[in-house]
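Thread: "does anyone have the structure for this chain?"

Original post by V.I.:
We have the sequence but no experimental structure in hand. Need at least a predicted one for the grant figures.
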Amino acid sequence: MNFWKKNNKEEIEKEEKKQKIKKKNKNNFLILLIKIAIILVLVFVIFFVVFGVFRMNGSSMSPYITDGNLLIYYRLDKDYVVGDVVLVKQDNTYNIYRISGTNGDQISIEDGTLLINGFREEIQGFYDTDLPEDSKVTYPCVIGEGEYFVTNDFRLDLNDSRTFGKIKKKDIVGRVIAKLQIRGI
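Reply from O.Q.:
Generated one for you, tokens below.
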């Protein structure tokens, strides 16, 4: 009789041990799922709330930003200054521009040169700044509160504030903080 009790007791202990291992594995799996969910939420917040990625199409910001470059932009910055490269949304289209004028600046174009408050702009492109024929802007153009004058670095591309005028702060999606060269590597 002792033999059966001893053998039965050993089997019960083995079964209890197996159940504990199963329960521990189940708990470890749940913990793993929770960690994966937390990581996915953090990735979502980082790349869809704080930062964004934009692929440059075209040569409007050439030579600094070229066709195919991946740009990382910061969405939470709302204090933009002259020289910032920003992603702008207009009419469901996204474009990259450089801010050339902010609140209170007076913009004019004389002899192919962009003048800000009467002085040549600090960030001068390789090309003259021409006036587009179909411009809706009258010069000198004074930039109001919450408005920006944006230009392309490749000044022969006239699709910027020289054509469509000032943009509103709400149209700026974010400030470009990094450029990743993916073509020509």
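V.I.: this helps a lot. Helices lie at 2-50, 161-164.
O.Q.: and The chain has a mean pLDDT of 86.
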